[in-house]
Every structure is written in C-alpha cells, then in structure tokens.
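User: Show me a protein chain along with its predicted structure.
Assistant: Here is one chain, sequence first, then structure tokens.
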Amino acid sequence: MEPKQDRIYATFDGRTQASLPELSQALLARQRIDWPQLQAGYDALATKLERRLAAGDLTVVLQCNPQRIVSTGADIDPDAIKARPCFLCPANLPARQQAILWQRQFLLLCNPFPIVDRHFTIAHREHRPQLLHGILPAFLKLARDFQPDYAVLYNGPQSGASAPDHLHFQALPQAAIPALNEGIKHIAKVREEHGVSLSKKIDGARTALLLEGSDAEAIIALIRKLIRAMQRLVFPPAERLESPLPMAPLPQTEPKVNLFCRYAKGSWRVVIFPRRQHRPAAYYKSGEDQILVSPGAVDMGGVLVLPREADYNRLDAASLMNIFQDVSLDEALIDEIVTAI
C-alpha cells in the first residue's frame, strides 16, 4: 500500500546525510508538537512507577504503565482481528501521524503508547502477516542502520504482537533493556558456525539463546535453523499449517519467539527468547488471583509492564518466577533445540 506523500516526514535509504537515529529523534520531536496523542503518551510515561524485583538469579524492572493496557489486553483472537481495522496500515493511521520511509519497505512511526523514551514502531507498508520468514535480512539491516545505541525487536504473532496480522518491528534504546545492558551472566557457549557463536543464557526461569558475529548471512542461516528446530520440538504438529493462507489473520507457521538485535563495532548480537506460552496462567485467573501481564520482547528482556497498579504493588518473587516459568522453555528443551541443529 502506497503511503500518502504528506505522511512521509523523511526517507532513509542509507545514502542520506543524517543517520537513522538522528532522523528518528527529529521525527519524535516534531510529532510531540504536531500530534497531541503522542505527547499525551509521553506525559503518561512520565508518571510511570518502577521498581526492581528479584527472584533468585532473575531480576527485572517492574513498570506500572496504565496506557499499555491497549497492548497487554489486546484481543488477538482471529475473529476479533478480522473485525477491526488494522491500526498499522497507512490508510488507518491517525491523521497527524507521520513516518520515515525506511528502505522503501517500512514506515518508521512514533509509538503513541511508549514503554521508554524514543520508542518506535516500524511497520511494513503492505498488510502482511507477522512472520520472520523472508524478513530476517531486513531485521539485521535495520539494526545496523540504528547502530550503536538502539536495539530492534520482533514479537512473534503469539508472543506479544498486538497486531499479528501486520508485519512490524520495534526499536528503542538498548540501554533501556536490562538483558542487553547489564552484562551477560550464566552464559555458556554451545557452538560456533561459520564465525557465528551460539550461546545459551539461563537466568532462573528465563532462558535465551545468544548469537554473535559479523557475517549477516551466517547469522540469518543459524536463526533459521533454530526456528525450524523450535518448530519441530516445541510447536505440536496439530498447531502447524504447512501451507497457510498468505493473509491468515493469526499465522501458526512459526514457534512462539521474541528476538532482539543490535549492531555495534562491526558485529551483530541477536538474543532469542524461545517461548512456551504467550500469556501466563495468572493472566486468565479472576479476582485477586489475576495478574494482567502479557509478556512480549520488552518483558522478556527485563522490563515487565503491568498496566494495573494493584498488580504492580502485589507482585512478589514467587509470582514473578511463575510468570517466567509459564512462558519460557526450560533448559533441557533449549539443549534439545541446540542439539537438533
């Protein structure tokens, strides 16, 4: 879908004088003036509550951010998705929202419900499902264009994406994500392939795989191997569709997964969080037993977003451990995935 020209604040194709972070910051400054909804989102962000909570080796930042109920409580049932207009399609964007056209493929947009300062959504200009297949080169290239201070993330269609019917990434300062910024603990290198190192990272109930290297094609090939292994070992065959309709509203063709990617000093670092479930058991309980939390990449990265202050106040170490145990794979299954590739 061709975006209207008045939507385009700037175009980035790698040959412009300004860097992508510079253009993004300029867009954000302009939009906070011209688009009241965005400024309201940043005003709300300024009132957020935050505290750190540890459960054994796992430490996260709890953030009480009521405006994020839009994402946390999103109804991703296929019928609900069919019934609503896609809020990432150019024709349905708010009238005052502008974009940077990146590599003629994606629209870089200011997120009106930010979790951190300088929070951007990068949506494909066409309406297509949220799937990694075929867009990993763009994922790594976007991280390189955002170097060195930003991380780019991907939420799978059943792992935190509130628009599983429209392909998109997000970008935010890497310093805001504890898992990317506080050093690597409890990590073990498990193999090296074509100059790309693969390690596993275990923090209590949260597990992750870490890829590092300077060869984009080798990184992409290894990610694809891991995704295929996860699909065989984690995704039950009954849930898979080998030949899905191209516009299926909730694709079932990739395992539940979140990814972060950043580029610095000539090398990529990709963190993969393989997932067991989209939402923990506590999300579906009622009354005081319910905890309204729906982990996406940011939550898996160490900023657990809670839209309700009551949940924020009463969440304790045991509840935190249960949340991550419900949504993460255990170490034994991580080892099976690595062995399978």
